[in-house]
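Structure, all two chains, one model.
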Amino acid sequence: TQLLEQSPQFLSIQEGENLTVYCNSSSVFSSLQWYRQEPGEGPVLLVTVVTGGEVKKLKRLTFQFGDARKDSSLHITAAQTGDTGLYLCAGVSPGAGGTSYGKLTFGQGTILTVHP
Amino acid sequence: DAGVTQSPTHLIKTRGQQVTLRCSPKSGHDTVSWYQQALGQGPQFIFQYYEEEERQRGNFPDRFSGHQFPNYSSELNVNALLLGDSALYLCASSPSGGELFFGEGSRLTVL
């Protein structure tokens, strides 16, 4: 069974602080994704990382994929209240039966609260 | 362009009953996946439909079944409901080989 462990589970910080969320896997996925989910909504894709050692930046968010493609991190610089939400990492498995995009295995999520 | 739409948004059932949830994919998407998200947890993969067939299945009992129609819309059926089936049920659609787009979910409460 493929598992993804996220840490920390809860994070409460002040506006302007930096933070890092970690995602560790027991196995290798074809790629890894980070999502953000707000209450009453479905997850929204932030980024997909594919290559070991890859670093992607999205404004104040920096995503890293470990060399062995089994761990990833999300770093937010100068957090804002609008960053509040549930952050989820997800490993992507290959598709089956004609599909090229398979199932996602999600971590349990990190609930981030940014206080003004 | 409408995104992924799900219905109903909320529903309450009692143990032993059956429920059907519906999903209309984003325009141009032919693949539909269903996920169960319990409170405080990440989503768990139930199954994926493509060309009206179940292509992949997660670790869920046979009480969970689905269907995909020729217009790519999909239904999730759950029989003999248990208290533990209470969750947010998410539908996600994607074009072949593409990014998943999630709907807002159907919140099921089993009493």
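The mean pLDDT of chain B is 94.
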